[in-house]
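Hi R.,

Here's the input for the NAP complex you asked about:
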Amino acid sequence: MLVTGASRGIGRAVATAFAEGGDRVAIHHRGSAPLAEQLRDALPGEGHIVVQADVADPDAVRAMVDGAAERLGGLDVLVNNAGVYTPHPVLETSYEQWQQQWRRTLDTNLIGAANAIWCAARHMRERGGRIVNVSSRGAFRGEPGQVAYGASKAGLNSLTQSMAVALAPYGIAVAAVAPGYVETDMTNEHLKSERGADIRAQSPFNRVARADEIAAAVHWLASPAAEWASGTIIDLNGASYLRT
Ligand SMILES: NC(=O)c1ccc[n+]([C@@H]2O[C@H](COP(=O)([O-])OP(=O)(O)OC[C@H]3O[C@@H](n4cnc5c(N)ncnc54)[C@H](OP(=O)(O)O)[C@@H]3O)[C@@H](O)[C@H]2O)c1
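And here is the predicted structure with NAP in place:
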């Protein structure tokens, strides 16, 4: 299995869950080789590998996915987890910065995932497989300060649903998880700030998620038992946002 953005946070927890389940894992990172190598050496089981790419670079994604499949001897699971979440409030961001934020966010969170799916589907078409995309509650609830992020995740949800239909005839199931706040490097600053208590209070459990709670759902969605969940988007937000 291949998980993108596995050097830290949710991706790291996903890699751990799959290794604990007996899978061989391709740990992808962009610029965190020491973290990825440390994880590879710490995971249970054998045969785990480290792969590198900027997922916003289509050629790098192709080389990364093909390389992982070759070194693992095939590819049965892809988890698109790598993502960026940077502030760009509309009235406080220059037009030039606005262009940069939209381009970088869509290239990484949406087009990067679409390209990884294009590549992975070619390795799965004969033998079936599972693709899980890590989306966000923000796709439904809105992201007023990170609007490109919300749009990228809404696009990722649509990509998930279309791919679920397109790839089902090949035994490939495609699904997504949509977490609310999770304790990772991405959110640490928010959680430690004055807003931290308010963020925790968004959930009636009065806390945010742990990365391993997201990984458990991803692991199940990639299991043989979850074929019928293809096309779904699982809310993992501690009842902090109820969509209908
Ligand atoms: N944390 C949350 O509250 C939360 C909530 C909902 C959804 N999510 C989603 O969950 C996913 C993981 O989030 P996280 O909190 O675990 O993030 P994180 O701790 O910031 O880690 C992000 C990971 O993505 C990789 N990455 C970022 N940009 C990349 C690029 N251009 N090319 C390749 N890799 C790239 C990073 O690699 P390097 O280490 O090499 O930079 C890192 O491994 C994201 O898609 C995020 O949108 C997170």
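One thing worth noting: The pocket of NAP is lined by residues 5, 7-11, 29-32, 54-56, 81-85, 108, 134, 136, 179, 181-182, 184-187 (CB under 6 Å).

Cheers,
M.
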